[in-house]
Predict the structure.
Amino acid sequence: MLRLPLIAAVGLSAAAATLSSARDNAPVAGTFAPVTDIEWSYTIRADGDQGDTHLQFERDGMNTTMGADNLPEATAALARVSSAAAGEPVSFDLMREAGAIACTGRVTGHGRADGTCRFDPDQGFVEALAARGLVPEDVEDLLGLAFVDARLASVEELSSAGFVVADVGELMAVAALEVSAAYAVELRNAGLQPADLDELVSAKAVGVEPGWIAEMAEAGYPGLDLDKAIELRALEVTPDYARRMARVMRAMEGVE
Protein backbone atom coordinates (compact mmCIF):
# COMPACT_ATOMS: atom_id res chain seq x y z
CA MET A 1 0.00 0.00 0.00
CA LEU A 2 1.21 3.46 -0.80
CA ARG A 3 1.63 6.37 1.56
CA LEU A 4 2.01 9.93 0.33
CA PRO A 5 4.03 11.25 -1.40
CA LEU A 6 4.83 7.98 -3.19
CA ILE A 7 2.38 7.06 -5.96
CA ALA A 8 2.25 3.58 -7.50
CA ALA A 9 1.19 2.81 -11.05
CA VAL A 10 -2.19 1.14 -11.38
CA GLY A 11 -3.63 -0.77 -14.31
CA LEU A 12 -7.14 -0.41 -15.69
CA SER A 13 -9.47 -3.16 -14.55
CA ALA A 14 -10.80 -5.62 -17.11
CA ALA A 15 -13.98 -4.48 -18.79
CA ALA A 16 -15.66 -7.77 -17.98
CA ALA A 17 -15.38 -7.22 -14.22
CA THR A 18 -18.77 -6.20 -12.86
CA LEU A 19 -19.72 -4.35 -9.70
CA SER A 20 -21.63 -7.36 -8.39
CA SER A 21 -18.68 -9.72 -8.77
CA ALA A 22 -16.42 -7.16 -7.11
CA ARG A 23 -18.76 -7.05 -4.14
CA ASP A 24 -18.95 -10.86 -3.97
CA ASN A 25 -15.16 -10.98 -3.63
CA ALA A 26 -14.80 -7.82 -1.54
CA PRO A 27 -12.40 -7.97 1.44
CA VAL A 28 -13.94 -8.00 4.88
CA ALA A 29 -14.05 -4.61 6.55
CA GLY A 30 -12.37 -4.29 9.93
CA THR A 31 -13.65 -2.45 12.97
CA PHE A 32 -11.58 0.46 14.18
CA ALA A 33 -11.61 1.88 17.69
CA PRO A 34 -11.66 5.64 18.32
CA VAL A 35 -8.34 7.47 18.46
CA THR A 36 -8.00 9.79 21.45
CA ASP A 37 -4.33 10.85 21.47
CA ILE A 38 -4.15 13.30 18.57
CA GLU A 39 -2.46 16.59 19.47
CA TRP A 40 -3.14 19.81 17.59
CA SER A 41 -1.55 23.24 17.58
CA TYR A 42 -2.44 26.48 15.82
CA THR A 43 -0.14 29.42 15.06
CA ILE A 44 -0.56 32.73 13.28
CA ARG A 45 2.78 33.76 11.85
CA ALA A 46 3.08 37.41 10.88
CA ASP A 47 4.23 38.01 7.32
CA GLY A 48 4.00 41.71 6.57
CA ASP A 49 0.34 42.63 6.66
CA GLN A 50 -0.77 39.04 6.11
CA GLY A 51 -1.30 36.40 8.77
CA ASP A 52 0.00 33.00 7.71
CA THR A 53 -1.99 30.41 9.67
CA HIS A 54 -0.78 26.89 10.41
CA LEU A 55 -2.83 24.11 11.95
CA GLN A 56 -0.80 21.04 12.82
CA PHE A 57 -1.92 17.59 13.94
CA GLU A 58 0.46 15.03 15.46
CA ARG A 59 0.11 11.42 16.59
CA ASP A 60 2.63 8.57 16.81
CA GLY A 61 5.02 10.05 14.27
CA MET A 62 2.21 11.28 12.03
CA ASN A 63 2.48 14.98 11.29
CA THR A 64 -0.12 16.82 9.20
CA THR A 65 0.08 20.56 8.63
CA MET A 66 -2.43 22.66 6.73
CA GLY A 67 -3.61 26.22 6.46
CA ALA A 68 -6.60 26.92 8.63
CA ASP A 69 -8.34 28.47 5.63
CA ASN A 70 -8.54 24.93 4.20
CA LEU A 71 -10.80 23.91 7.08
CA PRO A 72 -14.01 25.94 6.89
CA GLU A 73 -15.47 23.99 9.84
CA ALA A 74 -12.72 25.38 12.08
CA THR A 75 -12.54 28.92 10.69
CA ALA A 76 -14.84 30.62 13.19
CA ALA A 77 -13.27 28.96 16.24
CA LEU A 78 -9.69 29.65 15.17
CA ALA A 79 -10.43 33.21 14.08
CA ARG A 80 -10.96 34.10 17.75
CA VAL A 81 -7.49 32.94 18.74
CA SER A 82 -5.82 36.16 17.59
CA SER A 83 -7.85 38.27 20.02
CA ALA A 84 -8.58 35.78 22.81
CA ALA A 85 -6.80 35.83 26.15
CA ALA A 86 -4.50 33.00 27.17
CA GLY A 87 -6.45 30.18 28.76
CA GLU A 88 -9.69 30.72 26.83
CA PRO A 89 -11.17 27.48 25.45
CA VAL A 90 -11.13 26.61 21.76
CA SER A 91 -13.05 23.77 20.10
CA PHE A 92 -13.93 22.69 16.57
CA ASP A 93 -15.16 19.58 14.76
CA LEU A 94 -14.10 18.22 11.36
CA MET A 95 -16.89 16.08 9.91
CA ARG A 96 -15.61 13.67 7.26
CA GLU A 97 -16.97 10.62 5.46
CA ALA A 98 -14.18 8.62 7.11
CA GLY A 99 -15.26 9.79 10.55
CA ALA A 100 -15.49 12.74 12.91
CA ILE A 101 -12.52 14.59 14.39
CA ALA A 102 -13.51 16.53 17.53
CA CYS A 103 -10.86 18.92 18.87
CA THR A 104 -10.70 20.85 22.13
CA GLY A 105 -8.00 23.03 23.65
CA ARG A 106 -7.03 26.46 24.89
CA VAL A 107 -5.37 29.65 23.73
CA THR A 108 -1.73 29.59 24.86
CA GLY A 109 -0.70 33.09 23.81
CA HIS A 110 -1.20 35.76 21.16
CA GLY A 111 -2.14 33.94 17.95
CA ARG A 112 -1.42 30.50 19.43
CA ALA A 113 -3.52 27.61 20.69
CA ASP A 114 -3.23 23.87 21.17
CA GLY A 115 -5.08 20.86 22.51
CA THR A 116 -6.14 17.32 21.69
CA CYS A 117 -8.53 15.64 19.24
CA ARG A 118 -10.62 12.49 19.23
CA PHE A 119 -11.24 10.61 15.97
CA ASP A 120 -14.34 8.42 15.73
CA PRO A 121 -14.17 6.27 12.57
CA ASP A 122 -17.31 5.83 10.47
CA GLN A 123 -17.89 2.08 10.12
CA GLY A 124 -20.28 2.63 7.23
CA PHE A 125 -17.49 4.34 5.29
CA VAL A 126 -15.11 1.48 6.07
CA GLU A 127 -17.63 -1.06 4.79
CA ALA A 128 -18.31 0.99 1.66
CA LEU A 129 -14.56 1.09 0.96
CA ALA A 130 -14.29 -2.67 1.44
CA ALA A 131 -17.16 -3.22 -0.99
CA ARG A 132 -15.00 -1.43 -3.56
CA GLY A 133 -11.92 -3.48 -2.73
CA LEU A 134 -10.31 -0.73 -0.65
CA VAL A 135 -9.47 -1.76 2.90
CA PRO A 136 -7.57 0.46 5.37
CA GLU A 137 -4.74 -1.51 6.98
CA ASP A 138 -5.09 0.29 10.27
CA VAL A 139 -6.74 3.25 11.93
CA GLU A 140 -3.87 5.48 10.81
CA ASP A 141 -4.95 4.88 7.21
CA LEU A 142 -8.51 5.83 8.10
CA LEU A 143 -7.37 8.92 9.97
CA GLY A 144 -5.28 9.93 6.96
CA LEU A 145 -8.35 9.60 4.74
CA ALA A 146 -10.25 11.82 7.17
CA PHE A 147 -7.61 14.54 7.15
CA VAL A 148 -7.55 14.74 3.33
CA ASP A 149 -11.38 14.54 3.22
CA ALA A 150 -11.48 11.42 1.02
CA ARG A 151 -14.90 10.72 -0.49
CA LEU A 152 -16.55 7.67 -2.00
CA ALA A 153 -17.91 9.80 -4.85
CA SER A 154 -14.35 10.37 -6.06
CA VAL A 155 -13.86 6.62 -6.45
CA GLU A 156 -17.10 6.29 -8.42
CA GLU A 157 -16.46 9.29 -10.67
CA LEU A 158 -12.91 8.29 -11.50
CA SER A 159 -13.97 4.70 -12.14
CA SER A 160 -16.67 5.90 -14.54
CA ALA A 161 -14.01 7.91 -16.38
CA GLY A 162 -11.79 4.82 -16.72
CA PHE A 163 -9.45 5.38 -13.78
CA VAL A 164 -9.42 2.71 -11.09
CA VAL A 165 -8.48 3.61 -7.51
CA ALA A 166 -6.70 0.40 -6.50
CA ASP A 167 -5.90 0.97 -2.83
CA VAL A 168 -6.29 3.31 0.11
CA GLY A 169 -2.98 5.04 -0.60
CA GLU A 170 -4.16 6.03 -4.07
CA LEU A 171 -7.45 7.30 -2.66
CA MET A 172 -5.45 9.40 -0.21
CA ALA A 173 -3.41 10.88 -3.07
CA VAL A 174 -6.53 11.56 -5.13
CA ALA A 175 -8.19 13.36 -2.22
CA ALA A 176 -5.10 15.33 -1.15
CA LEU A 177 -4.47 16.61 -4.70
CA GLU A 178 -8.16 16.99 -5.56
CA VAL A 179 -7.84 14.78 -8.62
CA SER A 180 -11.19 14.44 -10.36
CA ALA A 181 -12.83 12.98 -13.44
CA ALA A 182 -13.43 16.57 -14.59
CA TYR A 183 -9.66 17.16 -14.52
CA ALA A 184 -9.16 14.09 -16.71
CA VAL A 185 -11.69 15.51 -19.19
CA GLU A 186 -9.84 18.85 -19.21
CA LEU A 187 -6.56 17.12 -20.03
CA ARG A 188 -8.17 15.08 -22.79
CA ASN A 189 -9.77 18.20 -24.28
CA ALA A 190 -6.32 19.78 -24.27
CA GLY A 191 -4.98 16.88 -26.33
CA LEU A 192 -3.41 14.89 -23.51
CA GLN A 193 -4.32 11.27 -22.88
CA PRO A 194 -3.64 10.02 -19.33
CA ALA A 195 -3.46 6.24 -19.61
CA ASP A 196 -4.06 5.44 -15.95
CA LEU A 197 -4.52 6.93 -12.52
CA ASP A 198 -0.77 7.18 -11.95
CA GLU A 199 -0.37 9.55 -14.91
CA LEU A 200 -3.45 11.53 -13.91
CA VAL A 201 -2.20 11.99 -10.34
CA SER A 202 1.33 12.83 -11.51
CA ALA A 203 -0.01 15.50 -13.88
CA LYS A 204 -2.09 17.07 -11.12
CA ALA A 205 0.79 16.91 -8.63
CA VAL A 206 3.10 19.01 -10.80
CA GLY A 207 0.37 21.36 -12.03
CA VAL A 208 -0.24 20.38 -15.64
CA GLU A 209 -3.27 22.46 -16.63
CA PRO A 210 -4.98 23.15 -19.99
CA GLY A 211 -4.03 26.84 -19.85
CA TRP A 212 -0.35 25.99 -19.46
CA ILE A 213 -0.57 23.50 -22.35
CA ALA A 214 -2.11 26.18 -24.60
CA GLU A 215 0.55 28.74 -23.65
CA MET A 216 3.33 26.22 -24.29
CA ALA A 217 1.88 25.54 -27.75
CA GLU A 218 1.91 29.27 -28.49
CA ALA A 219 5.50 29.42 -27.22
CA GLY A 220 6.61 26.93 -29.87
CA TYR A 221 5.93 23.59 -28.20
CA PRO A 222 2.70 22.27 -29.72
CA GLY A 223 1.63 18.65 -29.47
CA LEU A 224 3.26 17.87 -26.12
CA ASP A 225 2.45 14.37 -24.92
CA LEU A 226 1.58 13.87 -21.26
CA ASP A 227 4.95 12.43 -20.24
CA LYS A 228 6.81 15.42 -21.70
CA ALA A 229 4.29 17.85 -20.20
CA ILE A 230 4.78 16.32 -16.74
CA GLU A 231 8.56 16.44 -17.16
CA LEU A 232 8.60 20.10 -18.22
CA ARG A 233 6.11 21.17 -15.57
CA ALA A 234 8.09 19.35 -12.87
CA LEU A 235 11.13 21.35 -13.98
CA GLU A 236 9.02 24.53 -13.65
CA VAL A 237 9.41 25.39 -17.32
CA THR A 238 7.28 28.44 -18.05
CA PRO A 239 5.91 29.52 -21.44
CA ASP A 240 8.15 32.61 -21.29
CA TYR A 241 11.23 30.44 -20.75
CA ALA A 242 10.08 28.17 -23.59
CA ARG A 243 9.80 31.18 -25.94
CA ARG A 244 13.29 32.35 -25.08
CA MET A 245 14.73 28.88 -25.56
CA ALA A 246 12.95 28.54 -28.90
CA ARG A 247 14.54 31.83 -30.03
CA VAL A 248 17.96 30.62 -28.91
CA MET A 249 17.54 27.35 -30.81
CA ARG A 250 16.44 29.18 -33.96
CA ALA A 251 19.43 31.53 -33.66
CA MET A 252 21.81 28.61 -33.29
CA GLU A 253 20.33 26.96 -36.36
CA GLY A 254 20.91 30.19 -38.29
CA VAL A 255 24.57 30.25 -37.26
CA GLU A 256 25.10 26.75 -38.61
About this structure: Confidence is low (pLDDT under 50) at residues 1-27. Residues 42 and 79 are 11 Å apart (CA to CA). Residues 239-255 form the longest helix (17 residues).
